[in-house]
Structures are given as C-alpha cells and as structure tokens.
Amino acid sequence: MTWELVLLLAAITYVSRAAAMLLLPPLPDRVRAVLDRMPPALFAGLAAQAVVVPGAGLGDSATIAGAIGALLVAPRRSLLACLIAGVVAYAGWRLLFP
Description:
single chain, mainly alpha, two-stranded antiparallel sheet, 5 helices
C-alpha cells in the first residue's frame, strides 16, 4: 500500500462523511435513539470475537482480562477509554501472571 493510496482513501472517507453531515437532513428521533445504543453492543461483539477461539474455546487468560477491562468501561461509550482499559488490563494480567 502506497502513501498516495492511503491519502486518497482518507480523503474519500473524510469528504463522504462531511458531505453526509452537511447535505442530508437530520435523522428522526427514533433512528437516532437506535444508533445511540449501538456502541456498547459493538464493543461487546468485538470483545466476544477476541475471546472465543474457533474450535478451541476460550482464548488465553490475558486476552480475557483485556476484554473484561474494556467491557467495564464500555458504558462510558468511548472507544479510547475502552482501548486504554483493555490494554491496561491485558498488560496488568501479563505482569501479575507471566
């Protein structure tokens, strides 16, 4: 992947999102309420995908600790907070139980 391609993809993503925000009418309240509830469910789905290994059951204990750490802060609805909590829980588990 070249830098030109990365910049082109970034520009397409930015322009399409900016155009949607500026040109489309506001969403109805019911649709907005449904969309506002999606981030915690998405975080839970990502955590479950990371914890369950196909054909082998649960993943290693550090990965489970990281998923639990991320899920504990998921109600804050901040991806950054979930990522930080997951990494801290994962690293803390690895330090305590090498």
